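Figure 2 data, in text form.
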Amino acid sequence: MEANLSRELLLEMHRRMWRIRVFEDTADEMHRKGEIHGGLHTSHGQEAEIVGACLALRTDDYMVGNHRSHGHPIGKGAKLTGLMAELFGRETGVCKGKGGSMHLADFSVGSLGETSIVGSGIPVATGAAYGAKMLGSDRVSLCFFGGGATNEGAFHEGVNFGAIWQLPVIYLCENNRYAVTTPISDTCLVADIADRAKAYGIPGVIVDGQDVIATYQAVTTAVRRARAGEGPTLIEAKTYRFKEHAANMGRVFEYRPEDELEHMRANFDPLKLFNARMTGELGFSQGELDAIEKEVRQEVEDCVAFAKASPYPDLADAFTDLFEAQA
């Protein structure tokens, strides 16, 4: 097996990447039909770096996502039923139908939540790591964010704090090349975001984000370092999103060449790359991989049925789970 990875782990990588892809394709379809409302940002094409990173963690480790974040809790092992119900705005959702696509959280797998504010998860993940250190726990905290977030003040403040206190946190930049329509090269003069780690005195690592095993190995190394009390690591996963910034944006944007997108889809789809590797050098049969894909498709179909059958929150629930100002 590749790098002493178990058969079970490799199959779980395959399964979780397919879960993300099918879940998001289905959510996109439901959004187009008007059954899911609000913003919907898919990580289609970024499944490998998500799954590779999350599988390097324990279930009780912390994980913080961002606005493009259905994949992160799925990669961390969250059940699909509660996630899909949340997208449908039903009370059986992980946030009781109040959060929707950009505000998923599932504490049962260490998923602390996601927000639509760019870079806002970085201080949260840093705070979780600080808490773990204060409590004497060996939990680590993994934070996902895009290239644009590295230009936010929250990035500097969070990473600087994590570095100074040698916190058990992994900062993972999902560099998919673009913001909404702006190339990262227009907003960041360094070619590699990982180079910014030098300013904080922590390791900066670049990994092929379309390679689930390479990402797993890079994050595993960072996790070991964090648990040993040696502080944070900044990892830049070079990846690519195949779809637009968000679903149904209402217009056609021509910010990337059509042949670029076609080239990436044909040659750098992480699911196709891993399937070829699994049936090639890793010795798995196509039949067993196809069986997993079939199971996943049924799993997603069942979670849509669960979501549709679930009730909407009661109007009175709008006033629960809130902070109350005391006079």
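Caption note: The chain has a mean pLDDT of 94.
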